[in-house]
Amino acid sequence: MLFDTHAHYDDAAFDTDRDALLEALPASGVGLVIDPGCDVKSSERALMLAAQWPHVYAAVGIHPEELGGMAEGDLERIEALCTQDKCVAIGEIGLDYYWDDTRKEEQKALFIRQIELALQKELPVIVHDREAHGDCLDIVRRYRELRGVFHCYSGSAEMAEELLRRGWYLGFDGPVTYKNARKTLEVLAVCPLDRLLIETDSPYLSPVPQRGKRNDSRNLSYIVERIAEIKGCSSQEVEAAALKNGRRLFKI
Ligand code: NI
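Above: inputs. Below: predicted complex with nickel (II) ion.
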């Protein structure tokens, strides 16, 4: 069974066929999905999808890109949502200096407040780290008890080793299938099978040979095949390990 630990089915890209697509996933081998929220509204939609579909779970949180659109009381609403049924993590949260590097301190403060919420509620976190590796590592280092995944991991192998030592999981997505994936290959070399998660980040980041098209969880098999090829094991081993890891981290 494939477990897509990161897919945004609440996204408008799925408005025309969301129900049909989600209904078809188990028969196509995808038996579990986590839909992470990016703001209050998408977190609410993720929880609604989780309530509707037995194989869908949700995470709630405010993505660093949504910082500018935040309203008074949003964090309190995330706090109320995270205790709802089938909410398995706080996410996606983190730092994104690619998108905007002018409000770093505000991004960090938002990240820290949500990490502290996760610790208080004993939930793992789903971290978005884009071109902010040093600051992300610096922040998560302060919280020894904190667990979670660096989603679509894009840092160095050296940083990966430190995160793994600290008990973190690493998420791998469509980019493992891209030609310029050299750094990801180095990371996969240091990441043991029992610490990786497989994700699509649908509707984004479609793997080869679907690159450029809307992504969905059925494309997870291309990511699994490529990881298996790199690690020198079978696709079944990668699939089984990722399922076990996802169940362990998110307590599903
Ligand atoms: Ni995402």
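The CA atoms of residues 148 and 168 lie 6 Å apart.
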